[in-house]
Amino acid sequence: MAPHLSHEDFFSALTTLLEKTTGKAQGTVLLTQKPLPASEANASPSVLIRATDANSNAPNPKSADKGKITKDKSTKVKIGTVVKSEELEEFYTRYAEICKTRMTGLKKRDRKRKAKAKGGAAKTTKA
Amino acid sequence: MPYLPTSQAYLEQSALLLEAYPETVRLFTLQSDSTRPTPRQTIFTYRTSHNIKTKSNLTTTQRITTKYSFPTERPAQQLKRKKSQAKKEEKQSNSTEQPEPTAPVASLVLKTYHAPTGICLKYQTNKLQEVGRLMTGLGKLAGGADVASLGLSGPGVAGDVEMADGEDTAGVVAQGAGAAATPAGGKTGGKGKKKGGKGKR
């Protein structure tokens, strides 16, 4: 496991990961959060955040008999960061913002009806 | 495992799970601790006991996984989607709006898993507008929020009632209800949230 990233690095890596997945309209991004057990080093509870592209490093069992791996699995993206309890709020504000803006593969809110109802306001924004 | 019907229910149930099994209680495995004669034994301990050397991944904490994924398409499905897109473009070519390129709609699956009990809570959505609220909710869960603070900040039924109360008595209640909202202008915040709830239903 690679060492944990700083928050900045984590966010930039997460942004590229999400953008890449959305751009291809294919694949998966897995985000995990779990509380870390408190140790002597850090008395305050912290949360481990991880993100991967769910690209398994295991060879495909179907292609095992042919002796080759169909996809290049060496490019697995695996990032993680530790958030201390006092930084939680700040971190999650940015985290939510990034997820909101980059997960554009999801269904957008249908604003057409609203824009028609408002009429003038929508036109001014367009012009 | 069943999926929960609303995001609010999901967050609430997750909070309840957290409450039922507080994260401070962890399963530790002792590994040749000098203060203890037996080299290996499994005990329950609290976070405050620092003298115990922990060397185990058997933490009884709940893990929350958010899976953002695009569906895998069979070639036939791909073809179908492309055809329908072409049709749409034809339809929209005479209107002023430019056609949006259609892509398979991604899905977001949230899963709370509590390993020792095997409890698993799931919620699936494909709405972009829910992402922000969900992630904020997860942040609160990570911070160990209780059900009350979660329930009031969402647009659930109970939340609506609270908002109505807040508007009548103004000020204090509305501010208390909007835990996540900005403290200033509790009245307007409550109204905005109500509107959002109506639009959804």
UniProtKB/TrEMBL annotation, chain A:
Keywords: Cytoplasm, Ribonucleoprotein, RNA-binding, Signal recognition particle
Pfam families registered for this protein in UniProt: SRP14
Gene3D superfamilies, sorted: Signal recognition particle alu RNA binding heterodimer, srp9/1
Cellular component, GO annotation: signal recognition particle, endoplasmic reticulum targeting
Matches recorded under InterPro entries: Signal_recog_particle_SRP14, Signal_recog_particle_SRP9/14
BP GO annotations: SRP-dependent cotranslational protein targeting to membrane
Disordered: region residues: 50-71, 105-127
UniProt subcellular location: Cytoplasm
GO molecular function list: 7S RNA binding; endoplasmic reticulum signal peptide binding
Low complexity bias spans: 118-127
Claim: Lipid biosynthesis is one of the keywords in the record: no
Keyword RNA-binding attached: yes
Biased segments, Basic residues type: 105-117
Primary role: Component of the signal recognition particle (SRP) complex, a ribonucleoprotein complex that mediates the cotranslational targeting of secretory and membrane proteins to the endoplasmic reticulum (ER).
Family label: Belongs to the SRP14 family.
Subunit text: Component of a fungal signal recognition particle (SRP) complex that consists of a 7SL RNA molecule (scR1) and at least six protein subunits: SRP72, SRP68, SRP54, SEC65, SRP21 and SRP14.
PANTHER family: SIGNAL RECOGNITION PARTICLE 14 KD PROTEIN
Name used for this protein in its record: Signal recognition particle subunit SRP14
Native species: Penicillium angulare
TrEMBL record, chain B:
Residue stretches of biased makeup (Basic residues): 190-201
Name the UniProt record assigns to this protein: SRP9 domain-containing protein
Biased composition (Low complexity): 176-185
Any matching Pfam family: SRP9-21
Region ranges (Disordered): 62-103, 176-201
Transmembrane portions of the chain: none
Residues annotated as domain SRP9: 60-142
GO CC aspect terms: signal recognition particle, endoplasmic reticulum targeting
Domain of life (superkingdom): Eukaryota
A GO biological process held by the record: SRP-dependent cotranslational protein targeting to membrane
Source organism per UniProt: Penicillium angulare
